[in-house]
Amino acid sequence: MSVALQIEPAAPGLAVELDWRDACAVADIPAGCGVAALLCGRQIALVRPGEAETVFALSNYDPFSEAFVIARGIVGDRAGRPKIASPIYKQSFDLETGRCLDDPSVRLPVYPVRVRDGRVEVGMRP
Questions:
Q1: Residue 106 falls within a domain, yes or no?
Q2: Residue 11 neighbours by CB under 8 Å, 6+ apart
Q3: Does residue 20 belong to any structural domain of this protein?
Q4: Fewer C-beta within 10 Å: the chain N or C terminus?
């Protein structure tokens, strides 16, 4: 199973081609945890909220602490929504949208993810 996330909305009728980058094996991400990956010069947090092959990708940069630490956060849910809490000041981010659940004016970039043959691939704009 894979989860597709939008980087940002494209204009109606405009297809966005993605460059799919191999990040790691699903098994490299412990269930209920995140890991950091460097893809195309960007630090990406890959988060696997449970035992399934569902993986989310979002920026590893925490805008509150100004550190690349999101992948080390606490994975859980809030009102049924998968989230990760920054390990520094504990702000929570929705894994699907990147929206900060504690300050809606803040949002982390999210990236499309697919799992193929047990490998996690992240879609990057060329």
A1: yes
A2: none
A3: no
A4: C
Against a cut of 0.85, is the pTM above it? yes
**Which amino acid is residue 120, in one-letter code?**
V
pLDDT at 12 over 70: no
- Strand partners of residue 37: 44
Q: Please state the domain count of the chain.
A: 1
SS3 percent helix, strand, coil of the chain, rounded to 5, is: 5, 45, 50
CATH of the domain at 65: 2.102.10.10
* Among the listed residues 8, 7, 45, the one whose alpha carbon sits nearest the alpha carbon of residue 23: 45
Residue 71 lies in a domain: yes
Residue 60 within any structural domain of the chain: yes
Q: Which residue has the higher pLDDT, 122 or 7?
A: 122
Structural domain range at position 107:
35-124
DSSP 61-107: EETTTTEE-GGGSEEEEETTEEEEE-TTT--EEETTT-BBSS-TT-B
* Dist CA 34 CA 82 (whole Å): 13
